[in-house]
Amino acid sequence: MAPDHDDLSRGPGHGATETDKFVFPKWTNRLREASAVLAVGGLLYAVVLVTGVFSPQNTAVGYAPEQPVPYSHALHAGKMGIDCRYCHNTVETTAKANIPPTATCLNCHATVRTQSELLEPVRRSAETGEPIKWVRVHDLPDYAYFNHAGHIQSGVACVSCHGRVDRMEVVEQVQPLTMGWCLECHRDPAPHIRPVEFVTDMEWRPEGDARELGARLMQEKGIAPSTDCTTCHR
Amino acid sequence: MPRWILYLLLVVTALTLIPIGLIYRSSRSAKDRPRVQVVYDMDQQSYYKPQSENPFFADGQSMRQHPAGTVARGRLQGDEAFWHGTAGADTVFVEAFPLELTRELVLRGRDRYAIHCAPCHGPAGNGDGLVHRRAQALAEGTWTPPTDLTTAAIAERPVGHVYNTIANGIRSMPAYGPQIEPLDRWAIAAWVRVLQTARNATIDDVPADVRATLE
Question: Which B residues 72-91 touch A at CB under 8 Å?
Answer without folding.
Answer: none
